[in-house]
Specification:
Elements (H helix, E strand, L loop, with lengths): L2 H5 L3 H8 L1 H5 L12 H8 L6 E6 L2 E5 L5 E6 L2 E5 L7 H12 L3 E5 L5 H4 L2 H6 L3 E4 L1 H8 L2 E3 L4 E3 L10 E2 L2 E6 L2 E7 L9 E5 L4 E3 L20 H14 L5 E3 L8 H23 L4 H6 L7 H4 L6 H19 L4
Parallel strand pairs: 4-5, 5-6, 6-9, 13-14
Antiparallel strand pairs: 1-2, 2-3, 3-4, 7-8, 10-11, 11-12, 12-13
EC number: 3.5.2.6
GO molecular function: beta-lactamase activity
Organism: Aquisphaera giovannonii
Length: 326
C-alpha cells in the first residue's frame, strides 16, 4: 500500500478529500481557513473501513478514520494506545477486540483530541483503566473550545475519563515494558508517547504525522517550537530499526521522523522571523512561508496556508505567554 492510499484511510486524508480542490489549485490558492474541515471529515469518516494488521508477535496496529491505535496482547488482556473517533467507537471496539482476541484492560491516551480519545467511553464502560497526563484529564473533564476550528468539545462522561494520571511511568505487560513519557506543550499541553521497548516500537500520538502537515492546537497551548523539541526527544530514543507509529499516516522509520523534524524547524524559523518583523497573521499567511514545502507536506489535513495559520497562531501565543522570543 503506497503512502497516498494509506493516508486516504485516515482522518488526515478525509480532510484532504474535503479540500482537494483547494490543494490542487481548483479553488482559491490562498485559502487558509480550516473551520469547515471537522464537520466535513466527520461525515467522510462515517463509513471508512477500520482495519488491523500485525506489527510483531502480540502487537497490532488498528488504523482507518481517527488516530492510529496500537494493540498489545498481554497475559491479563489487551493494552491499547488511543481509542479513535466518537462516531466510530462501536466499530473501533470490535476491531480492537478481534485484533487482540481479549478484553481491553488498559487504555493509554496520547492526548485529549476527539480522534484519539473519542472511543474512551466504550472502552471505559467495558472495564478498561484509562491512563493519560493530568492535562489530558483536565481537558477531557471540561468543555473545550478550539479556536482555529471554531469548535466546542463537551466535557466527557465519567466513564471516558482517565483514572490514572502520570507524566512518566513504566508499565509491565508480560515480557514487554512500556515506557510512557510526557513532553512540554507541543501538539497540546498534555501529550505523551509510548515506547514498547521489547518490540522497539514507539507510538507518538500527534507529536508526529507521517508525510503531511500536522495540526497544532494553540487553544491547548500547543506550538511549533514544542513540536520541534518533541521530535528531538523522539529522535534520541529511536534507533535505525525502530518502528514509529505516528498519530496519523503509515508506520514510519527514524529517517521519516527526521525529515518531519527538519520541516517543522524550517517553518518555525521562518515564522519566528516574520513575527520578529511585526507581521500580522494575515501578512504571515500571505508571505507563503511554506511554498517550497507544500508539494511534499500539503498532501493531508492542511494546505500550506492552513498550516501557516495554526503554526503562527501558536507561536505568537506562546511568545506572549513566555514573555520572550522562542
Amino acid at each position: 500500500m503506497n503512502r497516498r492510499r494509506f493516508v486516504s484511510a485516515s482522518i488526515g486524508a478525509a480532510g484532504a478529500l474535503a479540500i482537494a480542490g483547494r490543494v490542487r489549485g481548483d479553488g482559491p490558492p490562498d485559502d487558509s481557513d480550516p473551520t469547515s474541515l471537522i464537520p466535513t471529515m466527520m461525515a467522510a469518516t462515517a463509513k471508512m473501513p477500520i482495519e488491523s494488521r500485525p506489527l510483531a508477535d502480540g502487537l497490532h496496529l488498528v488504523y482507518g478514520p481517527g488516530g492510529n491505535i496500537a494493540v498489545l496482547d498481554g497475559p491479563d488482556g489487551l493494552t491499547i494506545v488511543d481509542a479513535g473517533l466518537p462516531n466510530r467507537a462501536a466499530d473501533t471496539f470490535e476491531v480492537v477486540k478481534r485484533a487482540g482476541g481479549k478484553p481491553v484492560v488498559r487504555l493509554i491516551n496520547t492526548h485529549w483530541h476527539f480522534d484519539h480519545a473519542g472511543g474512551n467511553e466504550a472502552f471505559g464502560r467495558a472495564g478498561a483503566a484509562i491512563l493519560a497526563t493530568p492535562a489530558t484529564r483536565r481537558r477531557l473533564s471540561t468543555e473545550q473550545y478550539t479556536e482555529i476550528f471554531k469548535m466546542k468539545s463537551p466535557a466527557s462522561p465519567p466513564a471516558a475519563l482517565p483514572v490514572v494520571t502520570l507524566d512518566e511511568a513504566e508499565v509491565h505487560v508480560g515480557p514487554e515494558t512500556l515506557r510512557i513519557k510526557s513532553v512540554p506543550p507541543a501538539h497540546t499541553d498534555g501529550d505523551l508517547f509510548v515506547h514498547f521497548t521489547k518490540h522497539d516500537v514507539i507510538h507518538t500520538g500527534d507529536l508526529f504525522s507521517n508525510g503531511f502537515y500536522p495540526n497544532i492546537d494553540a487553544s491547548s497551548l500547543g506550538w511549533i517550537g514544542g513540536m520541534v523539541a518533541a521530535a528531538d526527544v523522539l529522535l534520541k530514543l529511536a534507533g535505525p530499526s525502530t518502528r514509529i507509529i505516528p498519530g496519523h499516516g503509515p508506520v514510519a522509520t527514524r529517517d521519516d521522523l527526521a525529515r518531519y523534524r527538519t520541516m517543522l524547524a524550517t517553518v518555525h524559523d521562518r515564522l519566528a522571523k516574520l513575527h520578529d518583523a511585526g507581521k500580522t497573521l494575515r501578512e504571515a499567511i500571505d508571505a507563503r512561508p511554506t511554498a517550497d514545502l507544500d508539494a511534499e507536506w500539503a498532501d493531508g489535513f492542511f494546505t500550506g496556508g492552513m498550516f501557516t495559520r495554526v503554526a503562527y497562531d501558536g507561536l505568537v501565543k506562546h511568545r506572549a505567554g513566555a514573555g520572550k522570543a522562542s
